[in-house]
Amino acid sequence: MPVVSIQDAKIYYEIVGHGAPLLLITGMGGLASYWSAQVDEFAKSYRVYTFDHRGTGRSTHSDIEYSVELLAADTIALIDALEIPAAHFIGHSTGGMMLQVISSRFPDRVLSQVLYGTRGRTDSFTQRAMGMRRDMALRVGVEAYVRSTPVFLYPSWWIQQHEADLARTEENAIRSSASAAILASRVDAVLRHDQMAALRQIEAPTLVTCARDDFLTPAYYSEELAEHIPNARLEFISKGGHACSVTNPLEFNRIAADFLMQQTAGR
What we know:
- The structure is a single chain.
- This protein has one domain: Alpha/Beta hydrolase fold, catalytic domain (Rossmann fold, 3-Layer(aba) Sandwich), CATH 3.40.50.
- It has 11 helices and 8 strands.
- The chain has helices spanning 39-42, 68-81, 94-105, 124-140, 142-153, 156-161, 163-176, 180-191, 219-228, 244-247, 249-266; strands at residues 3-6, 9-16, 20-25, 46-51, 87-92, 110-116, 206-209, 233-234.
């Protein structure tokens, strides 16, 4: 099992393909497997890196106070260990928050970035929605947290078409999940997220995208990010909910790949 040691944790990672490095950073679920509909496609042009966040999957389940800044530091430590001086990035949701920290604080490490289904701050809607997820973990339990997650990530039409697949995925997720306390701490980390003041410092070419029907990070968050990041491009995906890279991969892959190829060609 490929892992790297970063201070007090081990981070599981996977590598596929050849070419310029491309890191795919997952959202709250934190698993490398989230990108299964992207890896093979992007590996045709890039050396694709995916990993399990600290607190998820096969990485160390640290029982600590989590923060987006800590997870961003883990990512920098990972690419240091893999001897990647700079890379292209796609960050989804929590991964996009981590990427805001990385691209504003370590501009020389980011060749270009796609901020997908993410936000620069937390408003009252997000406090309610993510607070509900935290309370589900703490008051009802890990199994309820896992089984409620699709409602936040996927459109209703996709859920009803993929019930058998979701049931299998959920059983695996329940078995490999961190404790309820760790799940809640990771939710608290994203509820504290506020990078609005730092967005103007981002120098990397940036695409901001989400599905128009994203429930968890509504389109106004993407509009706000694109407004505050210098020269950012904003392009919406027609449908697919918060996890449109899963539910609408052809459109997501096309939009992200077109942007990344323009940056690669420019270099």
